[in-house]
Structures are given as C-alpha cells and as structure tokens.
Amino acid sequence: MDYQNRAGSKFGGGGVASQPATNADRRERLRKLALETIDLDKDPYFFKNHVGSFECRLCLTVHQNDGSYLAHTQGRKHQTNLARRAAREQKEGKDRDGVIPGMLAGVQVKKNIVKIGRPGYRITKVRDPYTRQNGLLFQFQFPQIDPGTVPRLRFMSAFEQKVEEPDKNFQYFIVAAAPYETVAVKLQAREVDKREGKHWNWYDEDSKEFWVQILFKTERDERYSAVPGLAPGRK
After folding, report:
1. Which of 142-156 are b and which e, b meaning 16 or more Cβ less than 10 Å from the residue's Cβ?
2. What region holds the Matrin-type domain (predicted)?
3. Which residues of 91-119 are buried (b: 16+ CB within 10 A; e: fewer)?
4. What does the alpha-carbon distance between residue 195 and residue 199 come to, in Å, rounded to a whole number?
5. From CA 218, how far away is CA 135, in angstroms rounded?
6. Which domains does the chain have, with CATH numbers?
7. Which of 23, 52, 181, 230 is most exposed, with minimal Cβ within 10 Å?
8. Cα gap 97→104, rounded to integer Å
9. Closest C-alpha to 193, from 163, 213, 170, 173
10. CA distance 65 to 221
11. Along the 235 residues of the chain, how does pLDDT read in single tens digits?
C-alpha cells in the first residue's frame, strides 16, 4: 500500500492511512489471495443470480462483484460455516467428495441452475373399479423442461423433510424436473400399493406432461399384508 503523498507526511516518508483506505487495501489483499487458491468455477457455493449479483449459498450473503465474494470466502463467517458443514457431512457419513455411500460415483450434479417457478398440475381422485381402492391421479405440466430430462419422483416420510414439524400421519410425494422448482404433495401416511398396474408413471415428451397414479392399499391389505394367503403381496 502506497503511503506517500498523504496529508501531513514528509517527503519520502509515509503518512497515516485512513480507515476506509486501510479496509480497501485489506479487501484487495484478500481478493488476490483468494484468486490464488480458489477457482470460482469449482466453488459449489458460488452463484450468480438473475440481477448480476453474486451469492454465497453457504452463508446466504449477496455481493456486488466477485472480488467482494472472494474476500468473503477468506472471512471468519465463511470459514466457520465451512468447518460446520465439513463436520456435519462427516457425521452423516459423506466422504471428501461429497458422495453419499450407496450413490453412483459417476452421477453429475448440476449447479447454479436458475429455477423458473413451479410446474402446472392437476390432481384427480380415482378409484379402482374392481378392488375399490382409493387413489390419486397427478398430471404435471413442464412446457419448458430441459431437453432430454425426464421428471423424477419419490416418496418422503414426514421425518425426512425440514419444512414443517414432522407429523407421522402424513407423507410427501416429491416430483423434480429441471429447471422447475421441486414440488411436494402432502398425502396421508397410508401404504401405497406399488404392484404393477396400481402405481405407475408416464412422461409424454410431446405434450411435456408427466402422469402419475397412486392407489392406496385397503384397510384389509394393510392389516394382513404380511400374512401369506390373506392379502396379495407386492410383485
């Protein structure tokens, strides 16, 4: 930092730097240091939003330029959150690459995807004419889905989600398709009949619609599902 030509300084000597100048110099030194050690393209917490600002997904902070973000990564808050995240991942059994045991190592995770909102949907109550099972028919619309992407679905228990207080009387039906937001439907915590023809899904690539049918087991099936000969088992 150049301390020459400051008010009150002698020729060849250094004057006293002001507080704003000292802070600016410190941020610049931190930015240069971060550039030598951090590759923003490989930083999983670096995100450029739709207004051109930069966000830290770990600390939930917003920065006007990459220099400000890089200086933030060298600060106490970011380093503390990194240590907490590493400790939590180690506790959950994740390895250094962030791969959960049992997952495919070759799966590529998309980053910095700008979500465009929720998909359109329609839910219809259905009943099997032969078994009298009650169920639901879902129809999701994804008119701007990424080419080559097929919607994915899964069931989630109330104790897996972090949005609301867990209630054992409910479960969640999750549907995900980039670049749309992941949606969840709250269902009764009844056992779903996953036999062939009962639970199915189909994606229409022409109309960009995703169809899912869910039928719940009857009370008799739920009660005697583990007893041979009294209720049909899963195929």
Report:
1. beebeeeeebeeeee
2. 54-84
3. eeeeeeeeeeeeeeeeeeeeeeeeeeeeb
4. 6
5. 10
6. 19-92 (no CATH), 120-224 (2.60.40)
7. 52
8. 12
9. 213
10. 60
11. 555 555 555 555 555 567 777 777 777 777 777 666 667 777 888 888 877 888 888 888 888 887 788 878 878 888 898 888 888 878 776 544 444 444 444 444 455 566 778 888 888 999 888 888 889 999 999 988 888 888 998 888 888 877 788 888 888 888 988 888 888 888 888 888 888 888 889 998 888 899 999 888 877 776 655 545 444 444 4
Residue 122: which H helix or E strand, with range? strand 120-127
Q: What type of residue sits at position 106?
A: G
Torsion 58-59-60-62 (CA) sign: negative
Is residue 135 within 8 A of residue 127, CB to CB? The reply is yes
* Cβ atoms of 158 and 96 closer than 8 Å: no
User: How far from 228 is each of 224, 225, 232, CA to CA, in Å?
Assistant: 8, 8, 8
